[in-house]
Amino acid sequence: MSLENFVNQAVSAWMSQEGPDSDIVLSSRIRLARNFKQYNFPTLFSNEEAREVISKVEEVLQTESFPNQIELLRMDNLQNLQKKVLVEKHLISPNLAEDSSHGAVILSGEEDVSIMLNEEDHIRIQCLFPGLQLKEALEKASNIDDLLEEHIDYAFSEKLGYLTSCPTNVGTGLRASVMVHLPGLILTQQMNRIIPAINQLGLVVRGIYGEGSEALGNIFQISNQITLGKTEIDIVEDLISVVQQIIAQERSAREALIKTSNIQLEDRVFRSYGVLANSRIIESKEAARCLSDVRLGIDTGYIKNVSKNILNELMILTQPGFLQQYAGGPLRPHERDIRRATLIRERLKLEEENNG
To answer: Which candidate, 268, 308, 273, 246, places its Cα nearest to that of 187?
Structure first.
């Protein structure tokens, strides 16, 4: 398969689009956790209950009321590499991939909707949008939730709200998050000061794949911690307010770098571009750092004729699962480093040919 065809098939359609403030906010995500009232939670349910959860949700979503084309993928029917790719695309969680005997995922054709079944909760509705579009993602997730609730009796308490396997999700069952690219705040050494301030506001800052993951390529995930005692819209508006402040600080940091360290920043950007365009072996951390520099160079105008979406795209395509999928089979770590370098070189060359 040619690289162009592979990219077109591998990258989710929504990732190729731009949204508000997409120079800094790569994506917005809403996730709603729900459970059936009549079944035990996934930690205790039977095989029969697990099968019925999948069957009932699929039946509801196949009605004419649901506008998106959908596909059901059962985890026990997928190979480990296929599950790894779904994790790298943020379509399923690592937990669903690892403990997948009862799990499934329902995907929309655009892959902007992902409904995980029998993970920590019976149902986890996830909607992904480019840029800062949390309200739009919430509206879409809520519409799907309303459709399901017409046919499913949810576990719900008048006092506590939606009941979930983990107490930290009780209430709205809502996790709202944004993926942000913050090289300016890192280079100006402000991030260590900002993270504690964000935490004090009831939000949490994590790496690119959520809890326990590393912030590769200066990409951070910011999400709410509180799900009880606030409405869904209040949670989303509070997160938007904080993110807008971070956007302003990141833009200010970039302007300061251009004003005080223009030639050094330009040199850093083009050195990283040179590494990506010419390396024959590159590890994931170095690739992520260089991709972050190049994206910063695109956003600040140093680099022309290269798409802004290249960071989103290559941060995923250069992950182990995708590299092995493109290679057609398992690769050892050293082989992945060679494949990663080759894929990046070919992708940059393709970009130059398309925009030359």
So the answer is: 268
Encoding tokens for residue 155? Answer: 């576990």
Residue (of 27, 31, 15) closest to 138 by Cα position: 31
Exposure string of 297-320, with b = 16+ CB inside 10 Å and e = fewer, is bbbbebbeebeebbbbbbbbbbbb
Cβ(287)–Cβ(276) below 8 Å: yes
Residue 16, sorted as left (phi over 0), alpha (psi -120 to 50) or beta, turns out to be alpha
- 90 φ, ψ (degrees, to nearest 5): 65, 25
Eight-class DSSP state of 309: T
Give the SS3 label for residue 171: strand
- 21-34 confidence digits (pLDDT tens): 999 999 999 999 99
On whether the CB atoms of residues 7 and 322 are closer than 8 A, the answer is: no
The string of pLDDT tens digits covering residues 43-87 is 888 999 999 999 999 888 887 566 567 889 999 999 888 899 999
Rounded (10°) CA dihedral 327, 88, 244, 272: -30
3-state secondary structure of 104: strand
What residues pair up with 124 in beta bridges, in sequence order? 33, 116
Rounded alpha-carbon distances, angstroms, from residue 106 to 124, 192, 241, 306? 10, 38, 32, 33
Q: Does position 9 have pLDDT exceeding 80, yes or no?
A: no
Rg (CA), the chain: 21
Q: Does residue 211 surpass a pLDDT of 90?
A: no
- CA distance readout (Å), 35 to 11, 149, 170: 30, 10, 11
Q: Determine the longest span between alpha carbons in the chain, in angstroms.
A: 64
- The per-residue pLDDT for 244 is 98
Amino acid at 35: N
* H, E, C per residue of 117-150: ECCCCCEEEEEEEECCCHHHHHHHHHHHHHHHHC
Q: Please say if the pLDDT value at position 7 is more than 80.
A: no
